[in-house]
Write a structure and sequence with these properties.
The chain has 98 residues and is α+β, with helices and mostly antiparallel strands. Strands 1-2 form a two-stranded antiparallel sheet. A two-stranded antiparallel ribbon has the order 3-4. Strand 3 (33-40) and strand 4 form a beta hairpin. It has three helices and four strands. The radius of gyration is 17 Å and the shape is elongated. The protein has helices at 53-61, 65-71, 79-97, and strands spanning 13-18, 24-29, 33-40, 45-52. It has one domain: Ribosomal Protein L24e, Chain: T (Roll).
Length: 98
């Protein structure tokens, strides 16, 4: 399983461990990924995802999964999240026509 957030696209970054004597050795900074189940109000369905903890805070701030996906850029989303976003947009268009 890739260490990448399904919603924000956060990946591991590379840096240095710096010792007291200022010797630098390569290391990886991994994102804080958590397994969560997010509910879409528009689709009335729950989705299990592996997202970063900071992304989870943003999802809460923007009013849930639907609000986050409405503002998210398509390039950052995983294929699973992109499909959910398209389904929500279709449901919104159907509701506007009726």
């Amino acid at each position: 399983m890739a260490r990448e957030c399904e919603l924000s696209g956060v990946k591991p970054i590379i840096g240095h461990s710096v010792s007291h004597s200022n010797i630098k050795t390569k290391r990886r900074f991994l994102p804080n990924l958590v397994n969560v189940t997010l509910r879409s109000e528009a689709l009335n369905q729950a989705f299990s995802m592996r997202i970063a903890a900071k992304t989870l805070r943003t999802v809460d701030k923007l009013g849930g999964l639907d609000g986050y996906l409405a503002k998210a850029k398509d390039e950052k989303l995983s294929p699973k999240a992109l499909k959910i976003k398209r389904d929500i947009q279709k449901r919104a268009e159907e509701g506007a026509e009726a």
